[in-house]
Amino acid sequence: MIVIPAIDLLDGKVVRLIQGQEQSATVYSDDPLEFAIQYQEAGARWIHVVNLDGAFGRPGMNDAVIERISRNVDIPIELGGGIRTLDRIEFWLERGIGRVVLGSVAVQSPEIIQQAIDKHGEDSIVAGIDIQEGKVAISGWTEKTQIQFIELAKNMKNLGICRVIVTDIIADGMLTGPNIDTMIDIAGNTGLSVIVSGGVGSMQDIRKVADAAGLGIEGVIIGKAIYENKIDVAQAIQQFQT
Question: Which of 128, 151, 210, 229 is positioned for an S-S bond with 101, CB 3.0–4.6 A?
Answer without folding.
Answer: 128
